[in-house]
Amino acid sequence: MADCCGGGCSSGKPPVDPRYRRVLWIALVVNASMFGVELAGGWAAGSVSLLADAVDFFGDAANYGISLFVLGLAPIWRARTALVKGATMGAYGAFVIGSALWHLASGVVPEAQTMGVIGVAALAANALVAALLFAFRNGDANMRSVWLCTRNDMIGNVAVLLAALGVWRAGSGLPDLFVAAVMGFLGLSAAHSVIRQARAEMRTSPAPATPAPIVELKRR
Q1: Using CA atoms, how far apart are residues 63 and 59, in angstroms rounded to an integer?
Q2: Are 58 and 122 in contact (CB under 8 A)?
Q3: Radius of gyration for the alpha carbons in the chain, expressed in angstroms and rounded
C-alpha cells in the first residue's frame, strides 16, 4: 500500500480498503436475505411496491457482489463494470413501472398489514447498510453506484410504509401503485447518474496494458 501513495502505482490498480470489502460482504448478505423475505411477502400481500423492493434487494445483492469482484482492478475495468450496473439499474426502473401499470389494470388491493411489517424490516436492514457505506459515498463510479442503490432503497422503504398506510386508509391499491412508480423513476434517475459518471471515467482512465507481441526468431 505504501507504494501507491500519491497515485504512483505502476499497475494502475487502486489500493483496496479492507473496511470497504467487509462492508460490501455485510451488505451482500443483508440484501440477499431481504430479497427472499420481500419476495415471499410481496406475493402473499399482492403488493407491487413490495415486489419492486424485492427485485431491488436482489439487484443490490448482485451489485455488491460485482463490486467485490472488481475491487483492486484497473480503473478502466471498474468504470466498465459501473456502466453495466447502471444499465441494470435502468432495466429495474423500467420493470417496476411496467409492473405498476399491469397491477393498475388488474385492480388488485394489497394487504396493508403485511406491507407495513415487511416495510419496517426492510427499512431497518437498509439503514444498517447505509450507515456502513456512508463513509464511502464519494468514491468512484462503483462506490457511488453502491451508495445510490442504498440511498434509493431507504427512500423506497419509507415510501412502502406510506403506501401501506394509504392502502389501509383508502382501501385501494392506488397508493401502492403510485409508490412503485416513484421507485421505478428513482431507479432510472440513479442509472442515468451512474452511467454518466462511468462514461466520464472511461474517457479519462488509461487503457489496460497489453502484452508485447512475441517475435519468433528464425534460426539461420
Answers
A1: 6
A2: no
A3: 21
